[in-house]
Amino acid sequence: xxxxxxxxxxxxxxxxxxxxxxxxxxxxxxxxxxxxxxxxxxxxxxxxxxxxxxxxxxxxxxxxxxxxxxxxxxxxxxxxxxxxxxxxxxxxxxxxxxxxxxxxxxxxxxxxxxxxxxxxxxxxxxxxxxxxxxxxxxxxxxxxxxxxxxxxxxxxxxxxxxxxxxxxxxxxxxxxxxxxxxxxxxxxxxxxxxxxxxxxxxxxxxxxxxxxxxxxxxxxxxxxxxxxxxxxxxxxxxxxxxxxxxxxxxxxxxxxxxxxxxxxxxxxxxxxx
Length: 273
Prior knowledge:
single chain; 8 helices; alpha/beta; transport; nucleotide-binding; six-stranded mixed β-sheet; ABC_transporter_ATP-bind; ABC_transporter-like_ATP-bd; AAA+_ATPase
């Protein structure tokens, strides 16, 4: 029905989900698994957020999905695309953009050249990105820098940028890859509260219709951004889904959100006992 490598860009808002089913991961040199019995439903074209204590396996899951652990860990489980009862095991490895905790900008490259970096490597970017010429790539990169508010900073080197500016360049670089699935591992954690709030809003706007899986340690951030929210807990790690307010993201933080935030903190505290 879907093919092994489906076109996710056509599925937003149509009830499609990506399901991680019976996920089990163990590092090759480890005596016990890091993840066991992981089951998640990830809505296509929406944000799914993962919360959990440090070391519970959140980043491990994202790194596996991004194909960064192929030689380091054994994985059992499957990724299933589902809609209205129709199911198909699919491959998503080449449809993913990954944005880590650090911006990983090349210090000798300008903002513009950092955004263009992914186009220099074979296999990166969508077919449309890979097939366009250098002038078109430059125009696209400039457009993305404009979208993140840095059009006039295109020549700036990373060491001359604030933390917020560096993260905006990293967002533009991620968008340059034009992938339908975006994995984000605490990309806003190093920012102050105001810049974090601004970049959350910006990311929601620019990643609209993308399928985003975001790791965060901040319950408030998860509540603002998530259409689906999971707490990862226990050893080996399992995933528990939590209900969310039925409001559009990014949410305004009202009394309902505050009460949910408090309940999440209380759940997380139990994992530290």
